[in-house]
Each structure stands twice: as structure tokens, then as C-alpha cells.
Amino acid sequence: MDRLKAQAAKNREAAQVLRRRGKDTAAKGMEDRADELESGRVTDCTDAVSSLISWAFRP
Q: What residue spans carry the Basic and acidic residues bias annotation (predicted)?
């Protein structure tokens, strides 16, 4: 869950940059994604995918 919160924070920072550049639609999309990441509806599968890849490429 910490990875998702960290990514949400990065998305919000990127949204601020986009707003300063006048790209409000893109900024809104980044903020919506940050909200989704923070909501708990998104599953962090990083560890499972990493394990699967390690298993697949094991000698």
C-alpha cells in the first residue's frame, strides 16, 4: 500500500506541473488516478509479478 500512496503523491506533483503549463485536462486525469490509487480499490501486484518473473527466468 505504501507504493500506491507514493505513486499517488508523484501523480499529484505531476498534476501541479501540468496545471502550471496550462494542461488542465491532463492534470485532472493525473489527479483522478491519484484518487484511485489512494482509494484502496487498486491492488498492488508488484511482489507477485516479481516472484513470477524470477521463477520463470530461474536457471
A: 1-13, 23-38
